[in-house]
Amino acid sequence: MESAVKRLYYSFFGQEMPASLRNFTEADVEQKASDLFDRLQRREEYGSKVLDSKGRFKAEDSEAFREGKISLPELDLFMESLFPGAYAATFSYQCLPTFDIDNAYAFRGKGLMKNVAGMAKNLVSDTQRARSRFQTWLNASKDPYDTYAYILETCQSFGLRPLFFIQMGSYNNGYDTNIPFRKKEGRALLDLLSSHADIGLHPSYASNFDKQILYREYTELNDILGKKVIKSRQHFLMLKFPETYRNLLELGIQEDYSMGWASQTGYRAGTCRPFLWYDLEQNSFPGLTVYPFTNMDGTLHEYLKLNPERALEQISEFIEQTRAAQGVYTPLWHNHTVNNRWEWNKWQPVFEQMLALSCP
Ligand SMILES: [Zn+2]
What is the model's pTM? Predict the structure, then answer.
């Protein structure tokens, strides 16, 4: 069998290990490399039958979580110990703020029938939202999810270029509820975002069960943008190995950003560095680069129920670890979580302080 050290080297360096370095023969090094390669390439998730309600492998079932190592970039520490200096020197620290656009607008662009039904619901259960919906209708105030100018300006003030993942599905299935982007409002938004930021696909929940849907969403986004998208992140972080990545590669996706957990913060693959995905069934590197992330807005606030202060403590720890490993810090936010209202009241300062701490 091929050496695990060599396969790890290829995962991170993207090339064969030079002959001059091929003297790692100690069995314990090889065993540790093999275990960590499995963590990196997610062997435990292949064929797992223990899944959550959406069919996802759970963070709490991962070996790293059970062993208390989820917050440790084990791979980076190991690689630095094997290739001191060389590992750090191959890359330099970056911050890449990313945003999933699940619902481009709370009320705008959704059509009259959806808004009338929504208003009826709001009047019964949420008068704050009913008022906001009415004001947006009258054009008296901005749509509460319309935070794009704020995001672009704030990122720019820290010298950062954001990356937006666009969920193209509008299917009435309760999961894929975005505006139809082929219409005027959607096109105008994509026009604005693509002129100041990078754009990726956010494949819908439905696309996980039908490759035709995935293909349609990808083609529609490309058509509207007038160029081929190569970056992607799964909506709800729906990842099934190896199918999801094989499907994305078939489309022409070259970079995936789904490698993180929904219910826990930390390192799903044990690294903060981009790495080449290895298909454990085909025994090959088919050409997909994975960009992992450590913390998502909803994980901090909704799953772990941290207050803004505690969330910032965790965030700054991840930023420090990423800086030390010369990795890419890719925090995951949404347009509706930086509006400082309703359930996300008091989270805009967290977002801004995170950017201040993370900019290079
Ligand atoms: Zn999403």
Answer: 0.94
